[in-house]
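Sequence design from tokenized structure. All designs in this work follow the same two-part layout: the structure record, then the generated sequence. An example of the structure record is given first.
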């Protein structure tokens, strides 16, 4: 047919998520099945997102991928697992009888281009947004409509939680084949409009141990991790779900901090020990507890993943005062005016009482910058053809 399209192309975006009940440890390395369930908050894509274009064509001779403009090896096992899984789902759909006949496009090779709107150098976890976006874009281009948890999860465990907006749980599941290890939304982003998120990007020289290797050693050596997963996380999941449902910030904040601390305790219990927190991280923890003690209640909460950056949860009425406290304790070194990115935060003066309560000597330059954001929606399809990162020839556009 002369009118047949030579190129099927789709562009999607996907968000970053931050766990408040942490995933750490796999029971199956190949299928990426966790030893405990986890719960996360999806961050808004206005501040942090991955954009991915997937294109298929019968003219393509091999699967190819470009990340932030550079071609990468499509042979990486996790990329291969995602591709295999999406093609399996597409085949399944085509052979379901009442569905469309097996699409020819299944035999087509795919080209993928992906970019982040935030600097990878900031050390912010980009793999969750990246693999969620890949799964979403591949599903659209191959016509897959089923649950994508497994596709995203095979790229990176935490990526399955980036398939939804708002508040998301990843149920660990019980089956050996992982079919019940899926993400699902607990509440949409509109559920708790006052919730705010501040990412404190901490200066680091050293690259930390990656999550995959770190959690593997933890599973092998930490008895504390096993105890946490089996005896503590189930009740914590239930309690965190209640906190979210009832928008109980006090309890939400406390459990978020305790779960982050427990995760880092399991890292210390790993042998040889792993430490992701640096001096500045410890000072941030101290600052948060001083701030809360001054107010006599939990107004802000921290959480840390496999790195020194802090993610702070608070409510809209507390953002300005907390940012002023951060500026006071960590005076910006070079980029005074660029210190705050994302949502606008009005400058407010700090009371002498709060200054006194914060105590410790200021640490200039300990925090590089702050990104102010909020809870956001899940992956989106971009309809504007101008958004495609691949041109009509299936290769990255010059700007991509
Ligand atoms: C500390 O999902 O990056 O951020 O499944 O090996 O790719 P892999 O690990 P990954 O681990 C995330 C660990 C964490 C906690 C969390 O996000 O739940």
């Amino acid at each position: 047919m002369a009118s047949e399209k030579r190129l099927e192309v789709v562009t999607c975006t996907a968000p970053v998520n931050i766990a408040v009940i942490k995933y750490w440890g796999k029971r199956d390395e190949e299928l990426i099945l966790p030893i405990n369930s986890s719960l996360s908050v999806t961050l808004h894509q206005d501040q942090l997102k991955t954009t991915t274009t997937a294109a298929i064509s019968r003219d393509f001779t091999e699967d190819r991928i470009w990340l932030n403009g550079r071609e990468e090896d499509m042979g990486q096992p996790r990329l291969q697992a995602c591709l295999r899984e999406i093609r399996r789902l597409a085949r399944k759909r085509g052979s379901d009888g009442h569905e469309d006949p097996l699409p020819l496009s299944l035999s087509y090779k795919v080209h993928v281009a992906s970019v982040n709107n935030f600097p990878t150098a900031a050390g912010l976890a980009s793999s969750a947004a990246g693999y969620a976006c890949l799964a979403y874009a591949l599903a659209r281009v191959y016509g897959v409509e089923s649950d994508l948890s497994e596709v995203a999860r095979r790229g990176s465990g935490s990526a399955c939680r980036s398939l939804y907006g708002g508040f998301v749980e990843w149920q660990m599941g019980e089956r050996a084949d992982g079919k019940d290890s899926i993400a699902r939304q607990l509440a949409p982003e509109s559920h708790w409009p006052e919730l705010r998120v501040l990412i404190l990007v901490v200066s680091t020289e050293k690259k930390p141990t990656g999550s995959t290797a770190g959690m593997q050693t933890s599973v092998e050596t930490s008895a504390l991790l096993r105890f946490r997963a089996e005896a503590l996380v189930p009740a914590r999941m239930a309690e965190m779900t209640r906190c979210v449902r009832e928008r109980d910030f006090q309890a939400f904040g406390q459990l978020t901090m305790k779960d982050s601390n427990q995760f880092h305790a399991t890292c210390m219990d790993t042998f040889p020990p792993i430490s992701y927190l640096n001096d500045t991280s410890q000072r941030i923890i101290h600052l948060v507890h001083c701030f809360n003690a001054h107010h006599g209640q939990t107004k802000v909460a921290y959480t840390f993943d496999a790195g020194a950056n802090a993610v702070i949860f608070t409510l809209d009425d507390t953002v300005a005062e907390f940012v002023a406290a951060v500026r006071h304790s960590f005076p910006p070194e070079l980029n005074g005016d660029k210190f705050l990115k994302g949502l606008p935060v009005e400058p407010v003066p700090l009371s002498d009482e709060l200054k006194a309560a914060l105590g410790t000597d200021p640490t200039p330059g300990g925090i590089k910058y702050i990104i102010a954001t909020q809870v956001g929606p899940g992956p989106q399809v971009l309809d504007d053809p101008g958004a495609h990162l691949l041109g009509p020839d299936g290769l990255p556009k010059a700007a991509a």
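The longest strand covers residues 49-57. We note this feature because it recurs in several other targets discussed in the main text.
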